[in-house]
Design brief:
The protein is 80% helix and 0% strand. The protein is mostly helical and 260 residues long. The protein is rod-shaped and about 135 Å long. The N and C termini lie far apart (160 Å).
Length: 260
């Protein structure tokens, strides 16, 4: 009887931490399971077992509901680290709920899904770190690798780390185009600029720096044709002057010839 009262007192203990409450109930379930063979006909133990089981089911349902709310809120979180924290909290609740109800397949599947998503977000953080490292290297191949990684992270473009990294990498492409333009390598300049306007850089494609560079490349492509047109016009003008001056000379020579 004293044991029964002590166990009921544990069940009646209030706490704001559902995980701690879950540990208490799991301990009580184990104690009851160990006592059942020794007290097979105990009415008090049977009542306590039913009460503990009901509390376990109620707490499990509460944990599952809270975990769902946390995960729903996490879907509106733009930051990968913040979403990971929310999912980790939800997973802790689901794992505790699974201890209360080991046979509940839905709880087990929910916990498994959260683990998969956490592993995916871990990889996202690794990808961000690798893209950041590659973007700082002075290598065209490294920049292209960083670009490909950011292209794969487009669904996280609203994360605080995405846009600054994309902008820094985009600047490398524009600088390469500017360098090629100064060296009159117009084909390469156009190629770098075109890449700077494609995915994942399309949010930055309308940048003022890119627009100015595009105009400069277009102007550089027109300059040889303008020089050629000016040269042709100059030759035409010279021929016209020569032609105009030749006519008076021919008339003067004709006047020197005596009439028959």
């Amino acid at each position: 009887q004293e044991l029964s009262e002590a166990m009921r007192a544990q069940l009646g203990t209030t706490t704001n931490n559902p995980i701690e409450a879950g540990k208490t109930i799991v301990d009580l379930i184990r104690i009851i399971r160990d006592l059942r063979p020794k007290l097979p006909d105990s009415q008090r133990l049977a009542e306590l077992e039913q009460e503990t089981s009901a509390n376990a089911q109620n707490l499990k349902s509460h944990m599952v509901e809270v975990s769902r709310r946390i995960m729903a809120q996490g879907t509106f979180t733009l930051s990968v680290p913040e979403r990971k924290r929310a999912l980790a909290e939800a997973l802790q609740l689901l794992e505790s709920a699974h201890e209360l109800a080991p046979g509940d397949a839905r709880v087990a599947e929910g916990a498994r899904s959260v683990r998969v998503e956490l592993a995916r977000l871990d990889q996202v953080e690794v990808d961000f770190s690798e893209a950041r490292r590659l973007a700082t290297l002075d290598s065209e191949s490294s920049w292209r690798q960083a670009r490909d990684i950011l292209l794969g992270l487009r669904q996280h473009e609203h994360d605080a780390a995405y846009l600054p990294l994309l902008t820094a990498l985009h600047r490398h492409y524009l600088e390469q185009a500017q360098t090629a333009l100064k060296q009159n390598r117009l084909g390469q300049a156009q190629d770098w600029l075109q890449q700077a306007q494609e995915e994942p850089f399309d949010p930055l494609a309308d940048s003022e720096e890119g627009a100015i560079l595009e105009q400069e490349i277009a102007g550089a492509r027109r300059r040889p044709w303008l020089r050629l047109a000016a040269a042709v016009a100059g030759v035409a003008l010279l021929l016209a002057v020569i032609g105009a001056s030749a006519r008076p000379l021919s008339q003067f020579a004709a006047s020197l010839v005596p009439e028959a």
